[in-house]
Design goal:
GO terms for molecular function: nucleic acid binding. By secondary structure, this protein is an alpha+beta fold. Helix content is 17%, strand content 28%.
Amino acid sequence: MVTQAEWERVQGELCFGQVFTGTVVRVPRPGAIGVFVDIGLSVGGFVDVVLLPRRRTEDWPVEGTVTDFEVWWVHSDHQQVRLKPSDPKYLCEDFADFVAQFRPTWPSEIGEAVRRPRPSSL
């Protein structure tokens, strides 16, 4: 866990859809949780189970896999950058339907800052 100031600094440098090459460092329970990814930041990256292949967990990236990931959102409580796989072979089969149902604004969010700047005080 990093300091709040470091977490805010990291968030301030991230944009939705930003691509990082990362290494899968932990797959604790295939099919149940997701995968932890080192993307070279002081905070961890994580791909949630809902974004990974559902039909065949053997299609998940294994520990040591190096591939590209996109910033999907941030989880402030866990100081974690939530990612989605860039490579469709690691992405859930129904990603387009998932986005349409749960995050229909996703395409327009790409390139937007993850953390909105705080209003300046007068």
